[in-house]
Amino acid sequence: xxxxxxxxxxxxxxxVSVPTALPDGTGxxxxxxxxxxxxxxxxxxxxxxxxxxxxxxxxxxxLGDLDIVLIAPxxxxxxxxxxxxxxxxxxxxxGEATENATPGTGFEYCFTASATDLLVDGxxxxxxxxxxxxxxxxxxxxxxxxxxxxxxxxxxxxxNG
Length: 161
What we know:
By secondary structure, the chain is mostly beta strands. Helices cover 4% and strands 23% of the residues. A hairpin with a 5-residue loop joins strand 3 and strand 4.
């Protein structure tokens, strides 16, 4: 969910994408898209502060697998969470993940410049470990997180697209 100073909700409504499966071990990249077509054709992001937050609802069984990137219509991008293993967090879940083809329960993670911690540094909660019934697994708790790169990378990006 991309919020641009409340204009997005007032003009565009809440953007929603189709759920995207992220199976383990494939080595493939996956994308999910939203489209905005409600702004004036010439409107662009003029400051990183134009973006209040970007929220995703996600579940995945291995935080170290993911590279989460926001890519604008003109190709500009902001890395929200880089692909890399952060010591101690490689085996941490996002949401209540399953390690089979059955979807788990996603948690909402929002990226905002006003946050203080990166996603990989977030507090964890214990969730059911589906590969070991009766046990639990740490998962990054839902909440607000600092994007890895600045939203200023999107300055000049069109609002539509």
